[in-house]
Amino acid sequence: MKFTWGWGIALFLMGFMAYILSMVFQAQKVQTDLYAEDYYAQEVNFQQTLNAKARAVVYKDSIRVEQNETGIKISFPQALAGKENTKVNLYRANNAQLDLNFKAPQNNFIWIASEDLIKGNYQLKVQWEAENEEYLVEKNIYY
User: Fold this and answer.
1) Cα–Cα dist 56/131, whole Å
2) What is the pLDDT of residue 55?
3) Are 70 and 116 in contact (CB under 8 A)?
4) 49, burial (CB in 10 Å: exposed 0-12, middle 13-18, buried 19+)
5) CA torsion, points 13, 18, 19, 22, in degrees to nearest 10?
6) pLDDT for 80-114, tens place per residue?
7) In this structure, are strands 109-113 and 71-75 parallel, antiparallel, or unpaired?
């Protein structure tokens, strides 16, 4: 049997189809999580989120993150210590089950042990309310 252009094109197309099918099966195995369950409600209120971030710019540097091999220490300014409406969230984009949520810290820091964390990117969100105004600070953390 002689190898001609026809056979070359047919082999190329069969190889290409096999590659595309393997990519389809690979894509079905990937876990996908939503950013949040109430994504659309958050999108409607996005302007309030931007306003909260703008109000909290003065606090961005006073919320400090210190890391070492035993964990992460998140330090807060005295103005936030003991406030009951403070929420701290460590958001992990690639797996919703690795998200960590904390209520208001009783003292001016939160300690997160390394056993509770998996290496990777986290987004720290600190949200609180004072004098009927919302504040939001976001920082990216790689642990």
Assistant:
1) 13
2) 92
3) no
4) middle
5) 160
6) 766 778 899 999 888 888 889 988 777 888 899 98
7) antiparallel
The CATH homologous superfamily for domain 39-142 is: Immunoglobulins (2.60.40.10)
Cα 24 to Cα 5: distance, rounded to the nearest angstrom: 29
What is each CA distance from 4 to 7, 12, 15, 18, in whole angstroms?
5, 12, 17, 21
Least confident of 23-32, 33-42, 45-54: 33-42
**Half-sphere exposure of residue 107: CA atoms within 13 angstroms, side-chain side:** 6
| Total residues found in the chain within this entry | 143
- Specify the pLDDT at position 93: 85
Provide the pLDDT for residue 77: 84
Cβ partners under 8 Å of residue 52, min gap 6: 127, 133, 134, 135, 136
For residue 30, the SS3 value is coil
Rounded distance between C-alpha atoms, residue 128 and residue 53, angstroms: 11
Average pLDDT over residues 119-124: 92
pTM comes to 0.72
CA–CA gap between residue 73 and residue 117 (Å, rounded)? 12
Rounded-to-integer distance, Cα 64 and Cα 60, Å: 8
